[in-house]
Amino acid sequence: MIGQSVVLAEGEVPFPPSVEDFFLPSIVPWGAHNSYWITKFTALVWLGVALTIIFFLVTYRKPKLVPTKGQWIAESIYGFVRNNIAVDMIGHRGVAFAPYLTTLFVFIFVNNLWQIIPFVQISPMAHIAFPAILAIISYVMFIWVGIRHHGFAKFFKHSLMPPAPWFMQPLLIPIELFSTFVARPVSLALRLFANLFAGHIILLVFTLGGFVLLNADSFFLKPISVLSWAVSIAITFLEALVIVLQAYIFTVLSASYVQGALADEH
Amino acid sequence: MYAIFVAAEGGTEHNPIIPLWQEIVIGSIAFAILCFMLMKYVFPRMEQTFQARVDAIEGGIKRAEAAQAEANQLLEQYRAQLAEARTDAAKIRDDARADAEGIRQDVLAKAREESDRIIAAGKEQLAAERATIVRELRTEVGTIAVDLASRIVGESLADEARRRGTVERFLTDLETVGAGNGSANGSAVRAS
Asked: Membrane-spanning residues where (chain B) (predicted)?
């Protein structure tokens, strides 16, 4: 509302960007502010999921031993997560987790990708709801896997009591409890959300800032708007790195939590 | 100043770290659909393809190994056959050599026999001729000696000599005395 207030007040571009730039009016019903079922964000999620499913189904319609280009790309994505994340981190048992981890990776990556797609340029992951779901799924999964592997009591003892002298345990147990069962899901969700949120804010700052400079009263400030837009393009390339990296980090951390839950040594 | 605006707008301010429950629902459904589709229709088939690829490669290696083994076996077989053939050839050569030697010996023996036979025939002939000649000579020499003696001693002696076999006796003596010595023989003839 701050940005809109500025617009209303000055009749210019909304600047500086605010949290409200992430809560756009809904699509159906058109322009409503308190309806969240069908918005740009949910539409992008649906579109991303649909495109991903179509891509995989089409490229893997008729798999061959010697892959075609599309099949090779699809296989490379799965093979990368399977071999370089799941098996590398969890070991031979990681193959069982490869489908989930790959789905996670693809879902985050595709939704992140909207951040730099022209005319879209905002990722659903900039709303904490989506990263939160994924974090909760990973969280529940590693606890479930740990309990199934070790048994309920042994898993919690294993997770909460590091191998240390007994008199240290009163200090260590709360730390372990917090770091394993509180900080992990929160940090997973917040890391992804904050990266995408901040990325969008930065893009807004430099893009809208360009317009603000262009509309500035001082003649000398106007050319600087070009610099501002150039920076926003550069930031877009940086975002391209961030979206891949964040998808990768989320997946790797999920795999590492599963590995920790399955590990026999602390 | 912004705070005043916010207050005036009436609390539609959003908190970015409070999730919207509608989005949680939609995100969960969307992610569940993606999981279902990929895990049911895509990833298992990828695992199958990977496995098939591994099998194809391992099968290829196995086939190559089998072919290699077969080739080695054939090579061994050929070597064995070659060695056998060499042994056979050596044996045949030895046999041939032995045969040739035998044939040579036979031929030599035959040739020797033949030569012996020829020599024996020659000797026989010589002996026969010699006997003939001796017989003729004996007659001739007797006649000549008698003639000679008749000339020297006189006509009458011829009848006497014929009567008594003097010449025969003389020649027999001559032969007995001069069997080993030709010259003695000659001188005896001359002496008589």
From this structure: 24-43
Residue A64 domain flag: no
State whether residue B49 is helix, strand or coil. Answer: helix
Residue A140: both structure tokens together: 């529940």
Average of per-residue pLDDT across A35-63 = 91
Counts for chain B of helices (H) and strands (E), in that order: 6, 0
Structural domains counted in chain A: 1
DSSP 8-state secondary structure symbol assigned to residue A28: B
Chain B stretch 21-40, residues whose beta carbon is closer than 8 A to a beta carbon of chain A = 21-24, 26-28, 30-31, 33-35, 37-39
What's the pLDDT at B177? 76
Structural domain boundaries, residue A258: 70-262
In the predicted structure, residue A191 carries a pLDDT above the cut 80: yes
Domain assignment present for residue A183? The answer is yes
Residue A57 lies in a domain: no
Phi, psi torsion values for A28, nearest 5 degrees: -125, 115
For residue A166, tell me if it sits in a domain. yes
**Of A98-107, B29-38, B183-192, where does mean pLDDT reach its minimum?**
B183-192
Token pair recorded at residue A1 = 């509302």
The pLDDT assigned to B186 comes to 47
Confidence of residue A67 (pLDDT cuts 50, 70, 90): confident
The single-letter DSSP state of residue A38 is B
Supply the pTM of this predicted model.
0.69
Between chain A and chain B, the number of residue pairs with CB atoms below 8 A apart is 128
Q: Which residue of B43, B51, B53, B54 to mutate against A (max A Cβ within 10 Å)?
A: B43
